[in-house]
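Entry 0007
Protein: Formylglycine-generating enzyme required for sulfatase activity
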Amino acid sequence: MSCCGAGKAGQAENAQEDSNYLVDARSVAPAPADVQAALKSRLTDIPGRIFEMAARKSIFPEDYDNPRRRVRLSLFLMSPFALTNRDYADVVDATGYRTVAEKEGWSYVFHLRLADASAWPQHPEGLPW
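Output (structure tokens):
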């Protein structure tokens, strides 16, 4: 059993579902140039390097979380802070983007990571799903 994906029994169905999500993601219009420029202006260079990736001891072998291996990472850009709610709202307003949860009316909660899953509400107040 995987922590984040289905086992072999549902692979065909999941592949089709994943394909549908990919089509949806690719159909979102790019944000206008001014929104993109504002977000890109804050990015900073992160130098490339070689690092070790994967778990020392596998917990979920189905996730291919081991063996550890050396990976070369090229220089990339990253924001020095998380995307703000305002930034996210600007992108949503500019593109009409809707999350999977908004489209489907529900969202996963990793209940196995909760201290007391029975105390978790059906859905938090104020959420549209």
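Curator remark: The helical segments are 11-26, 33-40, 85-95, 100-104. Residues 30-82 form one domain.
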